Amino acid sequence: MSLSLVDVEQAEAALIEHYPRLVRLGYLVLPPTLGRNRRVLTAHALVQRALPRNQVDAPEQPVVPSPRDPDDPGYTYVRQRVLKAALAAARPRRRWQPPRQLPSVLPQVWGLRLFPRSGGADELALDQALSTLSAPARAAFVLRALEVPTDREVRQLLAAAGVDDPGAALAEAQGVRTPPGSRDACLLESVEFDACTLQARPTDLMRRRQHSRAIAAAVAAVAVCGVLIALPGDGWGPGGAAAPPYARNAAIQQALDPGELTRASATAWSHADRPGFASWPARGSRSDDQGLLRRALAVWANPGSRVQVTATPGTPSGPAAGPPQLLYAGEVDSAVIVLFHDGLRVVRYAEARSGDTSAAALDFARTDAADADTAGAVVVSRTDGNVRFLTAPWVPSAATRDLLNPTGEAQPLHQGPDGITDPVPSPAAAGTCHSWPALQLGSRLVTDLGELVPARLTTGTPTAVHDVNSPAARAAWAHTACHLQTMRSQGMRSVNIWPYAGQQLPGPAGEAQWYCTRGETWRGAGSRVLAQFQAPDLRPGTPAAMVAHASDSPACGAHDPHVLAGALWKSPAGKWFALGAGSEDVTTITATGGAHGAVQGPVMALPASAGAHVQLGARLPGGRRLATLK
Known about the structure:
Elements: E1 5-6, H1 8-17, H2 19-29, H3 36-48, E2 56-57, H4 73-90, E3 112-116, H5 121-131, H6 135-147, H7 151-160, H8 166-174, E4 198-202, H9 205-230, H10 250-255, H11 290-301, E5 308-311, E6 325-332, E7 335-341, E8 345-352, E9 361-366, E10 377-383, E11 386-391, E12 398-402, E13 411-412, E14 424-425, E15 437-441, E16 444-447, E17 455-461, E18 464-467, H12 471-478, E19 492-504, E20 511-521, E21 528-534, E22 545-551, E23 564-570, E24 576-582, E25 588-593, E26 597-600, E27 603-608, E28 614-619, E29 625-627
Parallel strand pairs: 5-9, 17-19
Antiparallel strand pairs: 1-2, 3-4, 6-7, 7-8, 8-9, 10-11, 11-14, 12-13, 12-15, 15-16, 16-17, 17-18, 19-20, 20-21, 21-22, 23-24, 24-27, 25-26, 25-28, 28-29
């Protein structure tokens, strides 16, 4: 395993996990003259374009970083790219130079101006002070406050980003008089400088209306010309091959009829062979509203261009093949929600309470083969970073847990008569990982990963997973929860953590733990596997270091319950070691490259040097070779 190379997947994992932090860095370094709206969009663009195109060398770094101060090679590389691009955007150009294109092609926002939320007087004073600095000095100030602890490291980062005189930039930054800020956090961490937690305001409405009229007239003219050119000679007459959408099709006509909807009885789940979404009764105050149900079915069958349609990966977004099942119809927060199930998918339709469908939304999530373990709840509403769930009829009680606080008690969560919970903070919308709310549904633990159906959390070996119901299991999840950010919006069905090895470290350093976290999707493909190293002195709730990851890998799963991973580790005495750990059935581990040796058993520790490139291999009973997770 090469421990100091960065490939695209490693950089992408770092970018996704630390996206809010990278965007904050870009926003603070960009020139204030751009305006807050353009700075926000440009900061997002800088980060999204920071991935390498192939494997690249990264600066020599410790392989087991402190995840709350991420300094792993993937993060270091992406951070350097963002910093360099932000400084380049702020650099003045000479007359003979062409205009410098800020990377703002994506994302784009039309009709709205976005800017961070306003802070207090201290934040405003700091923002004004930063605007008087040069771009390198501004970068030095931000790096010193948020990223690295020493002036030497700041100078190294600035030099690598192309700053001619890092010392002068640092000296200029040190001359800024900063307000005191809060007692427990740097002012730069406040919402004033958070380009991921935004407010929206309209642009110039009068000018936009004039432009819209001109564009509408042009589009109408083009559409008429296109129809005249493309229309077949027979049109939609008896001899024509084309027909209006869904015309004279009995199955689709039934799917559009609210009177044909399937409804399970209130007690169907109690005697079902396999309780799942198919045994959920129809609930909600508007489950008999024929007009609402007809609108929802019509939009599902043929959504207009203004309907916002989303689907989890691998989920078809087409119409139902026949009458679907109604799960819920009612008012939640400021919207009217309808939930359907067609055997393969859960579909959520949302419209304004007024019945206006111009801003309707349609969301699809694949849920085939759902059972009582994975059909415990569905997201019905997301508002201001909070989420409401509709719980299954067999859920006896609901509560919330902070996964980062393994010793904390579960907090009871109120459920209405129709199964709708009170709002719960969503970790999917969190900009940082200071907490990770999870939902306790009876004995089962689930978490919101930004999709319709929350993912079930388990622990145990790949062939014997079970609920997170012990202090040891909750402690393991406390060191893993923040890494769930890399699995958001991937269609995850369940995520299991497997403590596959314990290793006594050289000297009196204590025992380290190795975890393998596997996320499996509803569609089967697209699994996500992470290997993590937990040092003995890691505080409760602090994420274990992610030392390897893979996608679409059978490792740590029921079909291939094996894993091998390694890392460089620096002992308290200052000595470096190449560590390796495999699942308990590993008979031999071999190291080559920066460390040489073969060790009998599932764990290994060999002397090495800082930044060494070490390749690991292992053998299983019967002679099968096992490579490192990648």
